[in-house]
């Protein structure tokens, strides 16, 4: 089960990073007007209009992979048994704290007790 969660998390992270890169590479709506009047674009790798179709379709596929992996991670995480029933995340974190964590000193070492008197 842990291997599957790790693979799903890796797929989600990879699809998010690649999707961010593809979105940053794409041209906005205003760039199409300049290409219509011949300001470049025809000499690009995909042709005058081929890059928008390829990049937008690839972005849509990656977005679908991202959403599916997110839903799968949420489903498999909810299927795992919880350490305690109910309560907030902070209350559950206090119950699961590691034993090697340093314990805070008692109230005698508070900020007011450490101020020297004149």
TrEMBL record:
Gene Ontology cellular component annotations, sorted alphabetically: plasma membrane
MF (Gene Ontology): protein-transporting ATPase activity
Residues passing through the membrane, by range: 54-76
**Could you tell me where this protein is found in the cell?**
Cell membrane
A GO BP entry: protein secretion
Keyword vocabulary terms for this entry? Cell membrane, Membrane, Protein transport, Translocation, Transmembrane, Transmembrane helix, Transport
How does it sit in the bilayer? Multi-pass membrane protein
Q: Which InterPro entries match?
A: SecG (IPR004692)
The reply to whether Protein biosynthesis figures as a keyword in the UniProt entry is: no
Top-rank taxon of the source lineage equals Bacteria
Q: Which Pfam families match?
A: SecG (PF03840)
Q: Which family does it belong to?
A: Belongs to the SecG family.
What task does this protein carry out? Involved in protein export. Participates in an early event of protein translocation.
Name of the featured protein: Protein-export membrane protein SecG
């Amino acid at each position: 089960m842990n291997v599957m969660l790790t693979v799903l998390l890796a797929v989600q992270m990879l699809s998010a990073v690649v999707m961010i890169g593809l979105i940053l590479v794409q041209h906005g709506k205003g760039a199409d007007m300049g290409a219509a009047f011949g300001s470049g674009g025809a000499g690009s790798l995909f042709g005058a209009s081929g890059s928008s179709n390829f990049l937008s379709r690839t972005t849509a596929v990656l977005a679908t992979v991202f959403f599916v992996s997110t839903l799968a991670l949420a489903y498999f995480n909810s299927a795992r048994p919880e350490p305690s029933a109910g309560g907030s995340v902070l209350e559950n974190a206090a119950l699961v704290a590691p034993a090697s964590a340093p314990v805070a000193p008692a109230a005698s070492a508070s900020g007011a007790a450490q101020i020297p008197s004149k």
